[in-house]
Task: structure prediction
Amino acid sequence: MIVEKHENDCFKSCSGHSYIRKNWLGSIVFPFSALLQQSEFSDQIDVLERARIFKRNCKALFPKRRIITTVFNDEGIQILVTRYIKALNPPQQLLDIFLHDSNATLDLIARFVSLIPIMPDTLDENDGFDIWMTSERCISLAIGNKEEHAILLCNFFLYFGKKALVLLGTSMLEGHVAYVLTQETDEYLLWNPLTGQCHKQFDSFCPLQSVDCLFDDGNVWFNIQRNNTPVAVHFDYSKESFWKQLLPKSFQGTKAQSIQPEEIIYSDTNKSMVEDLKNRIERTLKCKIMEWRPKQPTRWNRQCTFILQQILPKLELGAGSLVLSEEKSEFERLLQFYWVAGFPIQMPYTDVQSVIDAVYQTGIHSSEFPQTEFALAVYIHPYPNNILSVWVYLASLARHQ
Result:
């Protein structure tokens, strides 16, 4: 609407006059999606503020316990940790190995996650600047931090319909850790995603020292129980006397959209590249062992090497007990003539130098007995996306006098 004032050509004594005229200048369209996004943005700000206050209050109760409510994604946007949790498909290659043994499949999935190289933490989580990748990004780059490993394993377990949550705590061996908690029929299991090992809640050999925080795709819970050791914790997080929850029940019906993809697309690992890498590691290790023994000759026992080469592939899939009788008999014949000392090393592949360092630390090469012989076998098991499991078996043999 426009108000226009017009003056005519009459004398100055004449008064001017004004009138109202409607002119169409155009239109501005506000799509409903924009209004909805504005509403969602406002809600996100409210939730992030709630998360900040929640973390502050929890730290006031138990300053030494860990809690993470929000992190930054790889685009630099601050989001709730709950948005990282979503059921995701493991590699089909792993699902096809133990078709009729679901427990063996879960163990293999945990092993696969443990083979992804670990990225050391460079920031203090108390600074509030944690940056987490999506599970797809973690797989494609073949690297991840402790929390990203736990999220990936949790998402894989959700794919199988398991009740799974990410657990933040501390370990006597690893310091700050992220585990996966699964609820079975009559017990809780604690999974270490960096080793692939599973422990029952009351397992005295479990290295987990404290249970501080849980989160899934819908909420974050902070442990307010006086005793936070795994054997003493009540994991029923529905009880408010044991667990303090971030979002009230009124919020839990409207979950924020996950930042994870609908599915993960995997790529095959080049087997010829793996074979070349195996040969290179084997040649390098033989040269290094001879370098480490400058004053002693280094002799290689081909018979023992052949036996070890047959054994290593079986160890990868947990079938070490299925060594063929032929291999057993050959090894027993070898023991009639030699004392044999050695053991296999297994590690995720990061670089050749890491393998060299691991072999050197065994000290098997340091035998000063003049007639010592050695056997060396290397095996690399390829998984999708260039994730590799490296096995090295170095043994020393001393002939019976």
